[in-house]
Structure to design on (362 residues):
């Protein structure tokens, strides 16, 4: 894929891009008040929802086309480009006509390849930058697919936005973050920037600061934070919006880590530790190979004596004892569980394959 870095979109957007503005544009005056409040906050791009994808009907669904001209005041007050969400051909046409500089595709749209393709067809022949939010469900392929579709119609100025995933069991977040996803996306699409949207991850303003810090820690390239002059009375997403002043405080308190290219001396220091880590990783792999060898011998015995591959009591014992040992050594229960599940799954698969091999040989 051919991706143009955010810094080369020709919009003056730099490293650690800050996108701010309301969930929804409500009035010309609201846009102006927010934009004025954001002066001095180092905002690179102003956001506002004009067409709002609401989960249930009957809520405020956005002002629509009329709100597009209000964005001119934000552009003038802050001297920055603006961005809106588009979900169909008529949104794209209206946004292009209003000379909106950047578009974004929302989570409820990324999930649907028909809608994404419709947007792409409307964009064919333009080179407007598009930010693609992750789909509602943690499906990397859908996220990747939407970006590929854009690329195929000639849109190369593309970025991702991590806004978390819907999870019925999750209580802490509105949309649970999955930090490995943006990392995978960056690995699969070299050069792509991924912005974090702490507002839609958090769902409540109290944890926006901590989610933002985690995004920075995981190397994400910027933040999109919903900002409102009167958050409690916002027409959408009231609980998660913050005032421009709160946004400034949050940004000032973020700890931006330096990248290695600015610290060549750190590379040789880190290399010393990394050599040790490489050695330990090698030992872990050797030990795992030994373990799987033993699993094969057990598999052979189970096959010869017609015993079931999965032995629940043994698995229970392994889980309990290993989790205890691991947590005593300061590893988290979550890590131990996922590690042991992966190990067990691979072992069961191996033994199943042994059974199949013998069957096909007979
Ligand atoms: C939004 O940014 O206001 C929005 C609707 O977000 P999402 O698509 O992430 O739900
Ligand atoms: Mn919102």
């Amino acid at each position: 894929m051919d991706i143009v870095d955010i810094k080369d979109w020709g919009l003056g957007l730099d490293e650690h891009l800050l996108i701010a503005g309301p969930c929804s544009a409500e009035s010309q005056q609201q846009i102006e008040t927010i934009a004025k409040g954001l002066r001095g906050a180092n905002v690179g791009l102003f956001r506002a929802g004009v067409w709002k994808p609401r989960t249930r009907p009957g809520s405020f669904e956005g002002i629509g086309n009329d709100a597009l001209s209000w964005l001119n005041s934000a552009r003038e007050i802050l001297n920055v480009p603006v961005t809106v969400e588009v979900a169909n051909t008529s949104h794209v046409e209206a946004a292009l006509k209003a000379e909106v500089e950047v578009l974004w595709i929302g989570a409820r749209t990324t999930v649907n390849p028909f809608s994404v393709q419709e947007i792409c067809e409307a964009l064919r022949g333009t080179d407007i930058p598009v930010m693609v939010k992750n789909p509602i469900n943690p499906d990397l392929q859908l996220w990747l697919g939407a970006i590929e579709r854009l690329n195929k119609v000639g849109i190369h100025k593309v970025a991702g936005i991590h806004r978390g995933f819907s999870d019925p069991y999750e209580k802490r977040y509105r949309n649970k973050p999955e930090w490995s996803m943006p990392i995978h996306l960056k690995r699969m699409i070299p050069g792509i920037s991924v912005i974090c949207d702490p507002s839609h991850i958090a769902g409540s303003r109290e944890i926006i600061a901590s989610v933002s810090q985690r995004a920075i820690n995981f190397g994400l390239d910027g933040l999109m934070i919903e900002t409102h002059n009167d958050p409690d009375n916002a027409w959408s997403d009231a609980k998660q919006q913050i005032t421009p002043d709160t946004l400034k405080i949050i940004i000032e308190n973020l700890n931006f880590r330096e990248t290695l290219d600015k610290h060549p001396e750190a590379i040789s220091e880190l290399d010393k530790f990394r050599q040790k880590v490489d050695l330990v990783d090698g030992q872990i792999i050797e030990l795992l190979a030994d373990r799987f060898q033993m699993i094969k011998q057990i598999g052979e015995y189970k096959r010869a004596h017609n015993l079931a591959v999965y032995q629940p009591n043994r698995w229970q014992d392994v889980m309990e004892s290993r989790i205890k040992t691991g947590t005593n050594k300061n590893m988290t229960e979550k890590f131990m569980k996922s590690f042991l599940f992966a190990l067990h799954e691979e072992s069961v698969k191996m033994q199943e394959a042994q059974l199949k091999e013998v069957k096909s040989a007979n």
Notes: The chain is about 50% helix and 10% strand.
